[in-house]
Write a structure and sequence with these properties.
alpha+beta, 2 helices, binds coenzyme A, Aminopeptidase
Length: about 130
Amino acid sequence: MKNPLNVGIYIYFMIVAERPFLDGKVIMYLSKNSNAYVLRCFYKRIRVGYCYFDKDYNNDGKIIYVDDLIVEEKYQRKGLGTMMMKYIICLAELEGKSVNLTSTINAIQFYRTLGLRKRRDSSQMYYKPA
Ligand SMILES: CC(C)(COP(=O)(O)OP(=O)(O)OC[C@H]1O[C@@H](n2cnc3c(N)ncnc32)[C@H](O)[C@@H]1OP(=O)(O)O)[C@@H](O)C(=O)NCCC(=O)NCCS
């Protein structure tokens, strides 16, 4: 695999050692539509989670905006949300960008475990690479 961050490349995650879920095998697929990048997780051809993000058009491309991150209810708390966010954080680290998003109240703790910080008096959260 030349560049695992290229759009359109399938990435197989073997994360048995980390957390033995869904047979330890999920496919994450990154694609791009006209407005945004779309990260989708599949298990046995079922879409179990997705995330929309944009890294191009605002703030001179210095910020990756995460628009939507959803894991199907049945598949929540199995590490899929973490996997997608880690992918985006990894992109941000590689490209020297920040990650910004608006969190639902329920998801604030989830994002905190990933190192995002919450802005005071706002539901906005952000990650800045060191
Ligand atoms: C928020 C969401 C994306 C998290 O995805 P997920 O795959 O369920 O999360 P993970 O399994 O990777 O969770 C990792 C850790 O984050 C924390 N966490 C996740 N969901 C949490 C919740 N609802 N409440 C508190 N902590 C939570 C826990 O520490 C969890 O680790 P644990 O399961 O070992 O305790 C998912 O619950 C979801 O789609 N929710 C509905 C839509 C939504 O609110 N999306 C966010 C929009 S900004």
